[in-house]
């Protein structure tokens, strides 16, 4: 996409998606009327920057709106002369012209918000292309009056684009949740919902529910054991999944205690305890998937649209630079720190599992609390280094104290998680190329597409409909992946065997991604 550099372009062009078969084929279209208007305005203030004109058009929009409300009996588009900062009287601007100029300026903000939401809802990619996320964002920015209803011109370090990005991401996410996830509430039975849930969703749901961070790994382990043991008839849709039988609950409890024992935990759970934990997971998942979101009409009651330091940091056009800084900081970490983060954020291991994997190589990491202590130190150092590096490049962004730095922790961890997952997927890609599974993946895709019924949405892949080939590919990948990780991380042979179920999940997700790409191609 050609980047808009010129003030005239920024306030007179709109983005459209070209050929859908060409990635990122984005085209700028000029509105002749807006182009003439902004050229005339720029002549009156040749030194003014984009933020000046963005505020100018927003003030114009507000002034015209006030004039319209006072003259509601006139059915005309009111025009009000607005003065620039130097006192020069510019052309009279109608509300539609001021709004269209501001909407044009916000096109990059709409694209940024749509890309962020596209990444957030990766599990819905088969359903919502990037273009649709962009159209949702665009609907909030055109006209932009409601979007900026709560904007404070006097608030320090607040700019039009940064404010819009924060609001637009929320608006797009809210729209998707209202139109899709909330609509799925009645589709799932309790255990159908758990079977549909992803590990990341469950963790976020439990956090949203107020579960202590130290307890979340245990709930996730119960959920994983349920997912392994409870394999209902594939002909049933998720709304019809029944409660697990007593035998299945006993097996889930046994598997859970077995895993805890492998991780050197002596605390055994009863069937009743496991049932309670699963009930908590169900409640958290329902609340998470159906939690109430704000509409645009309610934005004037919201007080947290002011961008945080991390919002400001990522909302700059140098977001790739942020990623580059984090990658360099990660690469310069001690080997043990990199390994802990790869296991934690890449393989999604708990701290207890990390201790069990690393204890033979690192005697100082025998117990969970030792892993937690090391992890806290690495996170603290990464946060401070990130803040220092960024402020050297952008001294105008102020992180005033430790609380400000702590606020960016979650976002930094999200970047690190993406980095670690990419590293693991890269390893799997290399294994696939070496073992020549590409043709098998394509064959598997075709087989699934032939077998799936109309009720199955495109490539929400039911891998078990093609069991033999899937099992063969997956078994080989898991074994090769374990061996490669043990070599890359200098771990003892078979040290990852006790967390093979976690490796299974990563490989399964990677296969789904490969099949989706193959199907789209």
Verbal overview:
- The chain is mostly helical and 521 residues long.
- It folds into three domains: 7-183, no CATH class; 188-290, no CATH class; 317-520, no CATH class.
- Helix content is 62%, strand content 4%.
- It has 22 helices and four strands.
- The strands form two sheets. The chain has a two-stranded antiparallel ribbon. A two-stranded antiparallel ribbon has the order 3-4.
- Strand 3 and strand 4 form a beta hairpin.
- Helix 3 (50-70) runs antiparallel to helix 4, helix 16 (351-358) packs across helix 17 and helix 21 (467-488) crosses helix 22.
- It is elongated and about 75 Å long.
- The two termini are 22 Å apart.
- The model is unreliable at 80-90, 182-186, 234-238, 298-304, 450-466 and 516-521 (pLDDT under 50).
Low-pLDDT segments, ≥5 res: 80-90, 182-186, 234-238, 298-304, 450-466, 516-521
The total strand number stands at 4
Structural class: mainly alpha
- Reading side by side through the largest sheet, how are the strands ordered? 1-2
Q: How far is it from the N-terminal to the C-terminal residue, by CA? A: 22 Å
Query: Can you write the helix and strand succession as a string?
Result: HEEHHEEHHHHHHHHHHHHHHHHHHH
Number of helices: 22
The whole-angstrom Rg is 27 Å
Mean pLDDT: 76
How would you characterize the largest beta sheet? 2 strands, antiparallel
Oligomer: single chain
Helix content: 55-70%
> What is the number of domains?
3
What form results from the Cα inertia axes? Answer: elongated
């Amino acid at each position: 996409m050609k980047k808009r550099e010129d003030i005239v372009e920024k306030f007179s062009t709109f983005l459209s998606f070209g050929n859908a078969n060409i990635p990122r084929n984005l085209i700028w279209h000029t509105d002749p009327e807006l182009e003439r208007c902004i050229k005339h305005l720029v002549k009156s203030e040749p030194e003014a920057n984009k933020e000046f004109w963005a505020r100018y058009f927003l003030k114009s929009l507000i002034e015209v709106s006030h004039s319209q409300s006072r003259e509601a009996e006139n059915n005309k588009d009111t025009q009000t002369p607005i003065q620039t900062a130097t006192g020069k009287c510019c052309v009279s601007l109608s509300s539609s012209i001021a709004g269209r100029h501001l909407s044009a300026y916000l096109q990059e903000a709409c694209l940024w918000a749509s890309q962020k939401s596209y990444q957030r809802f990766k599990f819905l990619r088969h359903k919502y292309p990037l273009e649709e996320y962009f159209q949702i964002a665009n609907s909030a920015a055109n006209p932009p009056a409601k979007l900026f209803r709560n904007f404070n011109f006097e608030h320090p370090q607040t700019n039009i684009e940064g404010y819009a990005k924060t609001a637009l991401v929320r608006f797009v996410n809210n729209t998707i949740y209202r139109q899709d996830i909330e609509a799925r509430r009645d589709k799932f039975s309790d255990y159908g919902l758990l079977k549909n849930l992803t590990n990341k969703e469950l963790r976020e749901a439990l956090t949203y529910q107020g579960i202590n961070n130290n307890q979340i790994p245990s709930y996730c382990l119960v959920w994983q054991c349920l997912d392994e043991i409870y394999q209902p008839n594939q002909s049933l849709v998720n709304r019809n999944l029944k409660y697990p039988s007593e035998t299945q609950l006993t097996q889930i409890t046994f598997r859970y205690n077995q895993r805890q024992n492998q991780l050197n935990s002596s605390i055994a759970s009863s069937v009743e305890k496991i049932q309670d934990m699963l009930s908590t997971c169900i409640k958290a998942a329902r609340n998470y998937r159906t939690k109430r979101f704000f509409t645009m009409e309610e934005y004037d009651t919201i007080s947290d649209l002011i961008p945080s330091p991390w919002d400001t940091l990522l909302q700059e056009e140098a977001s790739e630079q942020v990623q580059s800084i984090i990658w360099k900081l990660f690469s310069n970490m001690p080997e043990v720190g990199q390994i802990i983060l790869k296991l934690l954020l890449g393989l999604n291991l708990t701290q207890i599992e990390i201790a069990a994997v690393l204890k033979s190589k690192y005697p100082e990491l025998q117990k969970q609390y030792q892993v937690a202590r090391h992890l806290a130190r690495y996170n603290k150092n990464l946060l401070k280094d990130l803040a220092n590096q960024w402020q050297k490049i952008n001294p105008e962004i102020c992180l005033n104290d430790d609380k400000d730095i702590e606020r960016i922790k979650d976002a930094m961890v999200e970047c690190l998680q993406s980095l670690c997952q990419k590293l693991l997927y890269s390893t799997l890609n290399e294994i696939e190329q070496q073992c020549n599974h590409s043709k098998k993946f394509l064959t598997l895709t075709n087989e699934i597409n032939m077998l799936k019924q109309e009720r199955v949405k495109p490539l929400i892949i039911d891998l078990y409909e093609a069991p033999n080939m899937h099992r063969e590919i997956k078994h080989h990948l898991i074994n090769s992946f374990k061996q490669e990780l043990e070599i890359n991380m200098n771990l003892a042979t078979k040290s990852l065997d006790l967390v093979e179920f976690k490796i299974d999940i990563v490989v399964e997700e990677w296969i789904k991604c490969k099949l989706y790409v193959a199907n789209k191609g």
